[in-house]
Structures are given as structure tokens and as C-alpha cells.
Backbone:
């Protein structure tokens, strides 16, 4: 899952008691942000195999530090605690839930490449091999989150346009050929996570929920 991860960020923003949307965008993709860095540095491994699943060419065969359930729980605790120092206990819980949501949503679409711990006992429900269902699910998660966010936003229209732009970017993934090198792929992923968080910050400042709520 790619842009569907932002569903929980949008949906939980109001409940967070003031954690900015861009922080929740980074939290929901935190596991993938670290993954990008670890792929670039050669610590975690991915092979690009066209047709590996019907929706994604990524054979994610080694990612124990980012996408194992055990590692995710550690990230949840660390980031939730850090966020609670900056915002509030409630903010910390919401950041933690966003970080954990990444693994849960990945579990639905990934093939059995998500380890429970270390690099063993891999799980994944494999919806990426059912591209229509995977796409509908991803869109639904993103839009439900955006709808919840829009309720408290200054411009509902702007939030919907933002969500639709995100969806359009997701769709270009299906038509664009994947890069050949895994490090190139990880660089692209990393820059898009930073870009999307920056965009979320901009959209929220101009049209979104106010900083205090
Ligand atoms: Zn992921």
C-alpha cells in the first residue's frame, strides 16, 4: 500500500489534539521512510521483478528492521513516546496508531513478506494479486480518512482536491515503468514521502484544520 497509508493520518488528525497533519503523514509512512534509507544503504533488500504481483513489481525479500511486526511495535513505542513529549499523551497515542497502521494496511496487500519478528514467520494476505480489490481498498481507506478530516477543515473542497490529487499520483504508478535499480526506487520513494508531508503541511495551513484543534 502506498497512498492509502494517509487515510489514518487524515482520519485521526482531529482526535490527536493538535498534532499537525504533516507529522501524521510522516508517522503513517515512517516504516517506509526508514525502509528507503535502509535500502539505499544496502541493509534491507528488495528486488524489482516485473509481474511479481499484479499490482507491484517489488519482491521485498528482506526487511526485518522496518516491516517485521516486532520492529513496528518498537517504532510505535519510541515515536509515540517522543510525540507525547512534544504534544500530549493523546497526541502520542495517535502518532503511535498511525505508525502501527502502516503494518496493518501492508498486511492486507503484501504477499507473505512481512515477518512477525526478525526475518521469519512471514505473513501477508496478498491483495496486490487482486489489483481491483487492492485499488478499491486503498482508495476507500484514503477517502474515508479525508472525509473525516474534511468535516473539521476550513475548506472541504480543498481537502477533497488534495485527496484526489494523491489518488491520481497513485494511479500513475500503474502506468509508469518501475526503475531498474532498487536504490533508485528507494530514492524516489523517500522523496515522495517528504514531498507529500510538505504538501500536507501546506494544505493544512491554508485550508485544513486549525493548528490548535
Ligand atoms: Zn510499507
Residues:
Amino acid at each position: 500500500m502506498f497512498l492509502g497509508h494517509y487515510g489514518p493520518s487524515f482520519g485521526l488528525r482531529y482526535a490527536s489534539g493538535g498534532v499537525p497533519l504533516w507529522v501524521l503523514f510522516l508517522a503513517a509512512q515512517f516504516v517506509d521512510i526508514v525502509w528507503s534509507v535502509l535500502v539505499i544503504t544496502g541493509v534491507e533488500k528488495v528486488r524489482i521483478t516485473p509481474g511479481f504481483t499484479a499490482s507491484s513489481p517489488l519482491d521485498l525479500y528482506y526487511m526485518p528492521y522496518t516491516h517485521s511486526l516486532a520492529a513496528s511495535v518498537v517504532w510505535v513505542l519510541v515515536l509515540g513516546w517522543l510525540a507525547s513529549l512534544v504534544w500530549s499523551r493523546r497526541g502520542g497515542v495517535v502518532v503511535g496508531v498511525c505508525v502501527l497502521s502502516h503494518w496493518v494496511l501492508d498486511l492486507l496487500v503484501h504477499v507473505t513478506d512481512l515477518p512477525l519478528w526478525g526475518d521469519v514467520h512471514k505473513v501477508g494476505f496478498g491483495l496486490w494479486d487482486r489489483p481491483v480489490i487492492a485499488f478499491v481498498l486503498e482508495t476507500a481507506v484514503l477517502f474515508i480518512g479525508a472525509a473525516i478530516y474534511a468535516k473539521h477543515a476550513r475548506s472541504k473542497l480543498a481537502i477533497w482536491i488534495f485527496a484526489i490529487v494523491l489518488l491520481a499520483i497513485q494511479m500513475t504508478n500503474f502506468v509508469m515503468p518501475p526503475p531498474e535499480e532498487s536504490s533508485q526506487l528507494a530514492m524516489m520513494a523517500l522523496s515522495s514521502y517528504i514531498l507529500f508531508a510538505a504538501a500536507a503541511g501546506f494544505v493544512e495551513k491554508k485550508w485544513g484544520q486549525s493548528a490548535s484543534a
